[in-house]
Structure formats: structure tokens, C-alpha cells
Write a structure and sequence with these properties.
The structure is a homodimer of 206-residue chains. With 206 residues, chain A is α/β, with parallel strands linked by helices. Chain A contains 8 helices and 11 strands.
Chain lengths: 206, 206
């Protein structure tokens, strides 16, 4: 029996649930409810119950959710019960900050390489990594079988870099460059741009 | 006549339209269409027309949108026809990268101060800024009248820092800490966490 595809908007909420539950777990908590999760996240309890029910039976009426059990299930659903190798493209301020970012490994990701095309940067150290030459990127990534990349190059170079990532076998790109990318079917792109977030808020200010 | 409030999901797409249009403008383009914008952004042409029509009459049937005119209008709607001062809280890797980030000023924002509580960081230079003591944050921000902040402190300190920002008069917080914040009515929070973006994509990988 082929399950119905889950809407991407629902998929997009699962990492927020997982993050909140893992934080509760770190605080020594064992059980929560859709009401409490909803208050943490600003999402209605009904929405949370509906989202989770699409993946299975995680809570019992009246007793709530077992946090550890739900964490394990969400990790499996999101496929972060394994660790994904991640390549960073661009060793500017954002790429370098990402290379030093601590919060990745316990959440399913491990930076393994960082690339730049600037000859003055290639060979330099950032965190625990030596910056590699972008010219060797397709070979290095495809040889290592890396499927996830963070793209932190200037906007003018982002599409070409994305094309190379796709050629190298990358299937998920988190794009920090402030432009939209064109990628073939089967490759996923997420965007993160501080300015679009800020502008979404200034709309409401006076 | 009181206009109907625009759904936040629509507001959230306006910065993407603005960014794409500004890029077209940089390329010397004068006119575009909802079809072309839609292809750039992966959003349907009908959705774009519907979104924009909520704010006015920007295009003519058959002749498309005048890019400069639409850019000016979107900048006014999003209130980035002015420049907002922005405070950064946390001078770790992410905060420091943001302090050095170039792409803000022509898009409506200007970093004016950065704070940290670490005595070894206070007084040090990051980009063009001297790192200020968080203990003076409420005073400094309220005195300067800063309304927008980027929060890049560890998760365990984020709620307290947010409380202080609110006390100082900040009304828009872009939160890089991987936790959800509780803020009073009238204060806006946007979240950005690379891991939640990555997890939303690994769901689809094998």
C-alpha cells in the first residue's frame, strides 16, 4: 500500500517539533502534550496532533507523548537517525561561521569539507578544516559521496556553484546566497537570507 | 476604510519578490511578468498576481510589471524605503559573521552595535564594530531607539536576552538560537536555524 505523500509544509514543521522535544529531553522531561508543544512553538495543539497523526500513533489520549519515543520516531522520519556529511561552498564570513558552528553533529549533520575559489584562501585553516580549491569540488564531493551542501558564495556565483554541486551528486542544498537557484527534479533547495526575514517583520513596524 | 489585514504568509513572499526584482533591475532589466517572476521563484504566476493585487494595481494586462515601479512600491510596503538600525546580540561565529555581512545596507538595514557577555570579547573589534558589554545592552539599545535585533547567543541564554531586547524597545528579533522564544504581543520573531532547513530536505533523501 503506497502511503499518501505528506505536504511539504507538514514536513517543514517536523524539525521544529524535534528540536523542541530534544530540548525538553535535555531538561530531563519524559512526557509532553500537544498543548505544551504548541505553546512552545506558537502552533496550535490541533495542528500538531494532525501533523503527527500522519506518521503514526505517538500519543495516548490523556497521557500525552512519550518524549524519547517521539524523538526517536521523528529522527527516523527525518532521516537524522544517521549522520549526513555536509560540504560548505564558500569560505567567506558565513561559510567560515558555518564551518565552526557547533550545533550540527548531534542533530544529524557533520561538516566534512569547505571550498573556496580565492587563491589567498585555499590551503588556509578555518576551524578544523583546510580550505579546498573549488576547482576540485566536483571530484572531491562525488568521490566522498556527499549529498548535502551549504552554499555561501556571492549571488553572482551561486547558480554555477549549484550546477557543480548537482553534477557532483549533491541532492540537498541550503542556499545562503540571496538568489533563487534552478535545480533539476530530485534536488532540494532551502533558502536562508537574513534580510528576507527582517523585511517580513518590518512590514509590521511603524 | 480600514483595509483587511494581509495574511502573514503573503507578507512573507513580498521580500522574495523584492529580491528577485532588485536583481533583475541590477541586470538592467525594465519590465517583467508574473510568469517570469514565478519561474525565478518557483511560485505560480497566479499566486504572484494574487499577492500583489492585495496591495494595488502594479501591472497592466499584456505589458507586465514595470520593475522599478514595483521595487519602489514593495520597498514602501515592507518599510525598507528607510534604513533600520540593527543590534546584534552575541559575538560568536554567527554574530561576528553577521557583523561583517555586506548585503544588508542596500536592502534596508544597518548594523549599529554588537553585544557579548564574555569579558574576553568585550572591547574587541569585529569588522568595524567594538564589541559592547551585554550588561549595558538595555540602556544602549533603548537610548539609540533601535527596534530590530539579531539574536545569536547560545540556546540557554536566548530567552533572557530576548526579554532584555523587548525591555529595551526592540520589536523585531531574528533569532539564530535553536529555541523558540516567548515574546509579548506586538513583538515579532523570525527564526533561522540551518539544521531545521537541512532536516526538511533529508526527509526526502534515501
Amino acid at each position: 500500500m503506497e502511503p499518501k505523500p505528506i505536504p511539504d509544509i507538514v514536513v517543514g514543521r517536523l524539525p521544529l517539533y524535534l528540536r523542541a522535544l530534544q530540548r525538553m529531553s535535555q531538561q530531563g522531561r519524559k512526557v509532553t502534550s500537544s498543548q505544551e508543544l504548541g505553546e512552545w512553538l506558537g502552533i496550535s495543539a490541533a495542528q500538531i496532533r494532525k501533523d503527527l497523526s500522519q506518521f503514526g500513533e505517538f500519543g495516548k489520549q490523556g497521557t500525552g507523548y512519550n518524549i524519547e519515543f517521539l524523538v526517536e520516531n521523528l529522527r527516523q522520519i527525518l532521516k537524522v537517525d544517521r549522520v549526513w556529511d555536509v560540504a560548505i561552498v564558500g569560505a567567506g564570513d558565513i561559510g567560515s561561521a558555518l564551518a565552526r558552528y557547533q550545533g550540527l553533529s548531534e542533530r544529524g549533520f557533520r561538516i566534512t569539507m569547505i571550498f573556496d575559489s580565492d587563491p589567498t584562501k585555499i590551503g588556509a585553516q578555518v576551524g578544523q578544516f583546510t580550505i579546498l580549491d573549488s576547482a576540485a569540488m566536483v571530484d572531491s564531493i562525488s568521490h566522498a559521496g556527499v549529498q548535502v551542501a551549504m552554499l555561501a558564495v556571492p549571488a553572482a556565483q551561486a547558480q554555477q556553484a549549484a550546477d557543480e554541486l548537482v553534477k557532483a551528486g549533491v541532492r540537498a542544498i541550503l542556499n545562503y546566497a540571496p538568489i533563487n537557484l534552478t535545480v533539476p527534479e530530485g534536488v532540494w533547495v532551502q533558502y536562508t537570507d537574513p534580510v528576507t526575514h527582517l523585511q517580513r517583520m518590518t512590514y509590521y513596524l511603524d
